[in-house]
Design a protein that fits this description.
Layout: H1 6-19, E1 23-28, E2 37-41, E3 50-55, H2 62-76, E4 91-95, H3 100-105, H4 127-138, E5 147-156, E6 163-168, H5 176-183, E7 194-195, E8 198-199, E9 204-208, H6 218-226, E10 229-236, H7 241-263
Parallel strand pairs: 3-4, 3-5, 5-10, 6-9
Antiparallel strand pairs: 1-2, 2-4, 6-10, 7-8
The protein binds zinc ion.
Length: about 260
């Protein structure tokens, strides 16, 4: 049964595209009734860091999609209505809803019953993960800017607070702690010592280098194929939608600020 309309998401994407000449389509599938979109925002400075934001690969995690669409709308707007973070000083690729079938029905999987975030050993077995692999591999083409930071937005039904997975090279400085501290001003942080059999240090689960214990997730694909740092952000689904969107937004801002500072 449908509980949401993907058409509403598409409508907002197209509105944002119509508002700003900095926004263009980076990658798209026609695949009716669920065309997949990835948008590119070009900062005035072409050399500014490129950030990849993805959401909704699990359809029952709606705050992720809402946050990614809002980010697009913020980038498209001339006025940022009290938002002080300089979003427009970075280049972005944003795919706001990677599993529209699941999104409409509030289910984790796609129409074929697949958990798309376990498909990246061979992403070309489903339309949605093919789309993700293709858009990411485009960043590997000659003369294309490389992704400096990837942020994959999720939610967790079983969590009593926000937490994140930080997948990075052991030579890279961590930023997860700072992100959790800032998000802690918006909502509770999950303090359980273990989450999904991984050690949770005050809201941060660290996956160094080529850890494989999470299976073939997008994060692993990013680490192995794109060689980029990835934060997987998890808001607790039990909270109000607006609080979860805010938590994601604060996490994005903090992660960008910290990660790009360290990489310069
Ligand atoms: Zn998820």
């Amino acid at each position: 049964m449908k509980v949401r309309e993907y058409a509403d998401v598409v409508h907002r994407i197209l509105c944002a595209l119509g508002k700003s000449e900095h926004l263009t389509v980076w990658h798209k599938t026609s695949s009716p009734p669920y065309p997949l979109y990835c948008l590119h925002y070009a900062a005035k400075d072409a050399d500014a860091a490129l950030i990849y934001v993805s959401a909704g690969i699990h359809g029952d995690e709606p705050a992720s999609v809402q946050c990614a669409v809002r980010l697009l709308e913020l980038l498209a707007a001339e006025q940022h209505n009290g938002v002080t973070f300089p979003f427009d000083q970075y280049n972005w690729i944003i795919s706001p809803c990677d599993n529209p079938y699941g999104f409409e029905r509030d289910i984790r999987e796609n129409a074929a019953g697949l958990d798309l975030n376990r498909m990246f050993e061979n992403p070309y077995r489903s339309t949605e993960t093919t789309f993700i692999a293709e858009l990411l591999l485009r960043t590997q083409e000659l003369n294309k800017p490389k992704v400096r930071l990837a942020l994959d937005l999720h939610e967790d039904r079983d969590s009593n607070g926000f937490y994140l997975w930080e997948r990075r090279a052991s030579t890279t400085l961590p930023v997860g702690n700072e992100v959790v501290q800032q998000v802690g001003q918006v909502c509770a942080i999950n303090q359980q010592p273990q989450i999904e059999k991984h050690r949770n240090e005050k809201g941060v689960i660290t996956l160094l280098d080529t850890v494989t214990t999470k299976g073939w997730t997008r994060g692993r694909f990013l680490a192995e194929q794109i060689q980029t740092r990835c934060l997987i952000l998890e808001t607790p689904t039990t909270l109000e939608l607006e609080t979860r969107i805010k938590a994601h937004m604060v996490a994005i801002q903090t992660a960008v600020k910290q990660a790009i500072k360290f990489q310069k």
